[in-house]
From TrEMBL:
Source superkingdom: Archaea
Protein name (Swiss-Prot/TrEMBL): DUF4175 domain-containing protein
Keywords: Membrane, Transmembrane, Transmembrane helix
Transmembrane segments: 12-39, 45-61, 68-90, 96-115
Length: 129
């Protein structure tokens, strides 16, 4: 019979993987809007499959730590907010190029906010001695 510690560890690992998966979902959300404009009838579960593949790749490349999950959530949140804001305010509902640009800007801002070496590089450039 497994000990209570191993059960707790397994539940904790499952929660971290679930949080990583749900943090990755907003990164692929713009595909639901973009693919029909391009003429592809993609299944509704495509974003889930891509998020699962990205999560598997991330967990294979790097060990899962809470810091990685927080960074993924930050990138996903920024991407979602920028994309939805651009979609609504700039009325990008039929504009494939605008959707790709909004998606790219959201991803770029999210990665920039979540990647500490970029913070240090920006601070070094902006520092006045």
């Amino acid at each position: 019979m497994p000990s209570l510690d191993s059960v707790g560890q397994q539940v904790g690992d499952f929660v971290v993987i679930a949080l990583l998966f749900f943090g990755l979902l907003p990164l692929f959300g713009p595909l639901d809007v973009l693919l029909p404009i391009l003429g592809y009838d993609a299944p509704r579960w495509l974003g889930y499959v891509l998020a699962g593949a990205a999560g598997a790749a991330l967990s294979w490349i790097r060990p899962l730590r809470l810091r990685l999950v927080v960074r993924v959530w930050l990138v996903g949140l920024v991407t979602l907010v920028v994309f939805i804001t651009a979609l609504v305010f700039f009325e990008l509902d039929g504009n494939a190029v605008g959707i790709v640009v909004a998606w790219g800007v959201g991803l770029g801002l999210g990665v920039g906010l979540a990647y500490p070496p970029l913070w240090r590089a920006a601070e070094a450039r902006l520092r006045v001695d």
